[in-house]
Batch of 3 targets.
Target 1
Amino acid sequence: MNSKTAKIIKKFSDLKGINSKQLKREWLSLNESEKDKKRQEFLAALVKK
């Protein structure tokens, strides 16, 4: 996970009220295509706020 992804996860967790450590654990368990989909979901939610 690079720093850009970590910042996205942190902002998303703050927005949704979810524990960022839990999101990071889930992130590390995903494969590359799943990570791409999750990243797009996070970015879409952050843009909508």
Note: Residues 3-48 form one domain.
Target 2
Amino acid sequence: MNKKTKLFSLLAALMMLLSLLPAALAEGAPVDISEEAHIVGYVPGDPSRENDVMMEALNAKLKEEFNATIEFKFFNWGEFFDKYPLLFASGEVFDFAYIASWNDYHSFAAKGAYMDITDLVKDYAPDVYRIADPAVWNATSYRGKVYGIPHDGLSLSTANGFAYRADLGGLEEGQKLETLDDLEAYMKAVKEEDPAIATANRDAVNNNLILRYAQFQKTGWDFDWYGIVYQREDPEAKLLLKYETEEYKELIERMVTWKDMGFWDTSVMTGQDFVNEVDQHPFGQGLSAFFGTGSGDFNSCMNFVEDYDKDWKIGYFYTKSPSGHINKNDVLNDGVSIAATCTQPERTLQVINALLTRADYQWLLAYGVEGKHYVVGEDGFPKLPEGISPDNAPINFGMHPFSWFFYDRENTMPQRAEDRPVDIINKEMDALSNAPTLYGFYFDTADLQTEMAALNDIWVEYEIPLSWGFINESVEADLANLVAKQKAAGIDKVIEEAQRQIDLFLGK
């Protein structure tokens, strides 16, 4: 080979490397980006009013850097739980999907909905792999293989709780709701002040969140799989069926009392009015005393009060176990998987890696286009531009699903110089948090699908009404009927298999 030929060979190699350079900036495997990729995935929620404007800017960046574009298809919360399973049953070809432990992640993994990315993450999502706590990969592992990307695992604590109107119910300045008795007195006073204000708090499938919080505070039970629980600090994690306990009976009796006191009515059994945005929820309209399920919702309420110049005061109620602790955060509260139908997993992971770990992409997803959708305030945090009010804001701040489970929070998202009320609450919870015995354990129900389906039907028909205090015969008789139905559906088999897996998890 002569010198000229060698020179042309070197130049050709250099040009090839330059074509791959955007994909190889992180320490991952190079990806051939010579052909444009269009990446499609499904996420929960509703797009912002000017989502298309944000997406145009986002895709311009992705096209320039990765020769790729991305398309988010949204399932609103009212349809998410129904349409998500149909998505995989339909055979539709797409690239990624939102995942969460509360959305039966492991069940979908067992059915082959997601792609095995065990050997792909390190090469094609290197920043995600580098930043994530090594323990988080257990959360999205199924039978030894990784099928998804959970959030980074850096959040220390979580707590069952909700924001509430501290200016209602006769609360004195600085007075907090901390116990079930506090909560009962508050709801009673709120109903006496204005019977039209709702005091119920529920999630998208009509769970009584108040009962869930009351249960944790009274018992410290964890796991709670169709009533199967264990005491969170029991080193043996011995399972029991809560419906057979005196503690649960007393909790249901309290719910009956609260229902009879008018804290809710039969409307809690119908509809799917779970809404993430404060201004679209009855709370924002002054028709509900409670909003949300976590400290982030408390922060949203505080921002709502400030943005709309409300003279309201907002408190945050969260529950601790009898020992005074709360659980460390579930690292699979949010996440993303590559769909089994994906034909371009390397390109998809490459783009997801950038969206989850880089400030330029995170700010765009969470806040929109700078100058149009937000400006940076004196505190360094995004705020609405002059002349735009929260009720007509084109972008719902922080509500894009890909800004829920970002990585490297301190470097990718704006940080305020001073602690806000939510920061103080989070520090309180972090100080109280520890890991329950089964932290990181996930129950493999692949061989129990018949039992799971039957138990779910029983839960909907019998347990949900009980949880709201709606009784057919008596608390004792209705609980006995619930247990009998479960026994016939195979609950004992489920308990036996769950305990077997737990014992293996604990090294027995």
Note: The chain has a mean pLDDT of 87.
Target 3
Amino acid sequence: MLSIKRWLLLLTILYGSLFFAAAQKEIFLRQIEFKLERISDIDYENEYFMTMKFSKGESYLFKIINHIDNYAGKAVLELLEADKLVLTNFLNDKYYDNLNFVCNKTGFYDILIRFKDNKVGNSAINIKLLQ
């Protein structure tokens, strides 16, 4: 049987570890700003493309901020490993402003951004490392 002091110590350790596990630290890595003022007939001119390295076992947060300066478009983010789609914020007619990505393989990933429904837009995407 545990004494009251040991029981209180055990509870303190348990609650402390739960507090630290729930309070993840976010480290800002990069902000991508993409503004499209007119739609081009050439598809790739309507997209933003970049490559970024992610590390295995790390968790990342993508936060999409739309309608900057009252532009109508909503940014669609696609994260690709080679030609394989790994993550997107628009799936089955559902749109997500925040995405978590747990990297399973260290390497370079392509980030492709376009605006939903071929609209003009002005958006920012914040990428953070979660620890």
Note: Residues 77 and 113 are 5 Å apart (CA to CA).
